[in-house]
Amino acid sequence: MKVWHFSEMGYHPAWPQLEESYRVIIPSRLYDPKVGADLYHRYLDEWALCDELGINIMTNEHHATATCADSVCTIPMAILARETKQVRLLALGMPIGNRNDPIRVAEEYAMIDVISRGRVEMGFVKGVPFEIAPANSSPPDLMERFWEAHDLILKALTSHDGPFNWEGRHFHYRQVNVWPRPWQQPHPPVWMPVGSPGSAAEAAARGITIGVLNTGWVRTPAIYEAYRKTAGETGRTVTLDKLAYMALIGVGETREEGWRRADQILGYSRTSGIVAPQFMNPPGYASEAQSAQALKASGAGFRAGRIQSRDGRNLNPRTMSVADAIDAGLVFAGTPDDVFDQMRAFYDHVGGFGHLLMMGQGGLLDHAETVANLTLFSREVLPRVEEVPG
Amino acid sequence: MECVDIAGVSLELLTEGEGPPLLFLHGGDYFAQHRDFFAKLAERWRLIVPRHPGFGGSTRPDSFRTVHDLAYLYLDLLDRQDLRDVMLVGASFGGWIALEMCVRCLQRIGRLVLIDALGVKFGGREERDIADIYALPNAELLRLTFFDPTLAVPDYSALSDEEAASIARDRAATALYGWRPYMHNPGLRQWLHRVHVPALVLWGENDGIVAADYGEKLCRSLPRARFELIREAGHYPQIERAGAVADAVERFARAEVL
Q1: Is A299 in the B-facing interface, judged by CB distances under 8 Å?
Q2: What tens digit of pLDDT does each residue of A42-69 get?
Q3: DSSP character for A97?
Q4: Confidence tier at A306 by pLDDT (50, 70, 90)
Q5: How many domains does chain B fold into?
Q6: Is the pLDDT of residue A118 over 80?
Q7: Degrees (nearest 5) of the Cα angle A20, A25, A27?
Q8: What's the CA gap between B82 and B21, in Å, rounded?
Q9: How far does A90 lie from chain B, in Å, by closest CA?
Q10: Is the pTM value of this prediction over 0.90?
């Protein structure tokens, strides 16, 4: 199994000033560039450390938010492509249904793949509903744009005989000719995050690696099962390296220390869903049945994420304790033994996976604590995790 | 409701009443709240109300993406049913469709009524002519949409699954046709001089989605239009003041015009 360290590069200094929304409508006067610069550099330092620790690197992006100051996922990747030498670089990833220019995405990934000498993994994301407003992308045909952009990017990265024509429904180019071509052949591995069995099946039919985030103990098995089932039906061999799971990880010399770190990282889960409700379910983003149920629940059509304990209780992400989050399968925390045992139990529960996406920094976990967390994980947990079949 | 097949669309069509033909093109939401208005119109007109493709029970072919498609579809409908001297009434989003029809072909259209219509851009690039309904908190959205939301807004929790799904479908289809450019066609304004049928621009005095000032500009952009305010009504005066709007349409039909 492979392990990846992920941080949202949160701009937490603004959090105390936010209440109703951490996203979309918050004024950027709450962002101090001098403080922000220090934060960017410390997060980059933590990723650079991963190169020494043998932990791969994962970035992501969100927009108009203080929860994630990484608004362009390929920018830290580009910096780290030169600053690191060994580990692989995953962006999970680029919201290609929200970006207007898929060719630019292909160029960014190709350039970083070459600079890093073939260490890029390309994530393509649908994007959470509250990314619609900052991008002003039309929600009803988001996935149609997503798949057209996906097809165009892959064709652009794998065509090496001069320009080709693309006159699709959403994207028009008459001279597609991406330079440089990627280092990896035919192209860097493709990932997408999924949160439902339906989208897992869509990824499986195309052989795309799925990253499953925040679905926990209750919802993850059905997602992996849908992936395995569709992959089998479409004649693909399912290997565990097509399946990834993200967990918030706090490890310590003592259980108390590990839990304290996890509690700080949980600042991510406690803030990430706080969004002005009108941006939670833009029309046409969710399925008709989902939107109908949301409408009946409240006329505004608010849709909330679900986090459930193993015994089916709904957990409030804003007040969730470490014990609750461990029970829900969102957090692995404690001593190195605790973390490994929790991960292994989850692995067995869902039928195995090949990538552990480790949120090793989140919320208010500071630099020294993050370094300690990553270092201890690398020394005491990673060797055992790497032996788990993936 | 019957269904007719036109241009690859299975079009759900409500037809009621006897009299001269009136084609009503509905807006993006609150279709179920139009019963009173339809009943009043059907007393005097042969009322024809299509559900736009992608709304209600009407299918949307994959290629139907823009208001232009809807305009051609309804021009086809007029041809197909051989309707003449039609009273064309478009409300909100439906008013935009009506304008797109009129700049193309007026052959079968006798008179035009626009009710709190969208579709035209008057202001500059940093002015919001049309409130961003997708970015407003729900309570504020309702306050801007209605004179009295407590009377007009349904109890969503009491809806059947199918009724709720129909509303979700309507809202998704509205977004599909109107997301970007937002609820207007940047090129439409320069062709409004072609709408040389008698026109009545009706506006809810309390419309906070598209203010009455926009309605007056729209009126001035049409060669033969006059403007009338509906008191105690927001963006959907035909819901909040069904009788007043139906009467205004009737008076306009009988009036001498420019």
Answers
A1: yes
A2: 999 999 999 999 999 999 999 999 999 9
A3: T
A4: confident
A5: 1
A6: yes
A7: 105
A8: 11
A9: 32
A10: yes
Task: Look at A278 and B174 and tell me if their CB atoms are within 8 Å.
Answer: no
Contact B175 A279 (CB under 8 A): no
Measure the CA–CA gap between B197 and B193, rounded to whole angstroms: 10
pLDDT at A299: 61
| Residue position matching structure tokens 């908190």 | B137
What confidence tens digit (pLDDT) does each residue in A122-169 have?
A: 999 999 999 999 999 999 999 999 999 999 999 999 999 999 999 999
Q: Do A283 and B174 touch (CB under 8 A)?
A: yes
Q: How far is CA A381 from CA A75, A88, A331, B87, B134, in A?
A: 29, 19, 15, 76, 46
Q: pLDDT value at position A298?
A: 76
Mutant choice from B138, B141, B170 vs A, greatest count of A C-beta within 10 A: B138
Burial (0-12, 13-18, 19+ Cβ within 10 Å), A180: exposed
Q: What residue of B is the nearest CA neighbor of A134?
A: B135
Tokens encoding B118: 């969208």
* pLDDT surpassing 60 at residue B236: yes
Mark yes or no for CB contact A283/B153 under 8 Å: no
How large is the average pLDDT for residues A313-337? 95
In angstroms, the separation between the Cα of residue A48 and the nearest Cα of chain B is 39
Mean pLDDT of A336-359: 98
Percent pLDDT > 70 in chain A is 98
Predicted local distance difference test score (pLDDT) of residue B258? 60
Report the 10 Å Cβ neighbour count for B229. Answer: 17
Alpha helices (runs of H) in A84-215, residue ranges in sequence order: 102-115, 132-135, 142-158, 197-205
Residue of A133, A283, A297 lying closest to B172 (CB–CB): A283
pLDDT confidence tier of residue A305, bands split at 50, 70 and 90: low
Taking alpha carbons only, the member of B159, B163, B178, B161 closest to residue B96 is: B178
Cβ neighbours of residue B106 closer than 8 Å, sequence gap 6 or more: B194, B195, B196, B197
A123–chain B Cβ distance below 8 A for any pair: no
Per the structure, the complete domain to which residue B90 belongs is given by 2-254
Name the residue in chain A with its Cα closest to that of B139: A300
Q: Select from B226, B231, B230, B229 the least CA-distant residue to B255.
A: B226
Identify the CATH number of the domain in which residue B29 sits. Answer: 3.40.50.1820
Is the pLDDT at A300 greater than 70? The verdict is no
A136 CB neighbours in chain B (<8 A) are: 179-180
Distance between CA atoms of residues A323 and A331, nearest Å: 9
